[in-house]
Specification:
158 residues, alpha+beta, 2 domains, three-stranded antiparallel β-sheet, 45% helix
Length: 158
């Protein structure tokens, strides 16, 4: 590890601690040349898959874009920030667990719809109406009826 002050190649680790969350390691170091101290952090680097859009272009996964889509659908709905964070975390976990290097945008849309259905039925209908490009009132009514059927059958597990 190079010293950030003098760029010397040799540093000594003085102290190592695992973060409270257990997802990073903090190391206190001292430069062998200038003797200044500094802190470094080690974290796991997970690569999210690249998103393949409908037009064939590719884009990096953007957690902020995912959050804004969820928040738009959930606008003025009684859903906590913690619940939204949980939904985003579950979507990201599913994408990472897939092991795919590329994922079509439609898969993310389906994951978002599943999470919205779990969080808030009205937000789900809002998102589905745009995502599925409802052409007429009948398609909208079908989506509402689907949500109503699921609500009436408590034996269904998710």
């Amino acid at each position: 590890m190079k010293c950030p002050f003098c760029q010397h190649e040799e540093t000594q680790v003085l102290d190592t601690r695992v973060s409270e969350e257990g997802d990073s390691i903090r190391r206190r170091r001292r430069c062998a040349s200038c003797e200044k101290r500094f802190t470094t952090y080690e974290r796991i680097e997970l690569a999210m898959p690249v998103i393949v859009k409908k037009n064939g272009s590719r884009a990096e996964f953007d957690s902020a874009k995912l959050r804004s889509s969820l928040m738009l659908a959930l606008r003025k709905r009684p859903v906590s920030a913690e619940a939204v964070d949980g939904a985003i975390h579950r979507i990201e976990e599913k994408l990472l667990a897939s092991g795919e290097r590329e994922v079509v945008s439609g898969q993310i849309g389906e994951l978002v719809m599943r999470e919205l259905k779990r969080l808030d039925k009205i937000a789900y209908i809002r998102f589905a109406s745009v995502y599925k490009s409802f052409e007429d009132v009948a398609e909208f009514q079908d989506a509402i009826a689907e949500v109503g059927r699921e609500r009436k059958s408590p034996s269904k597990t998710k």
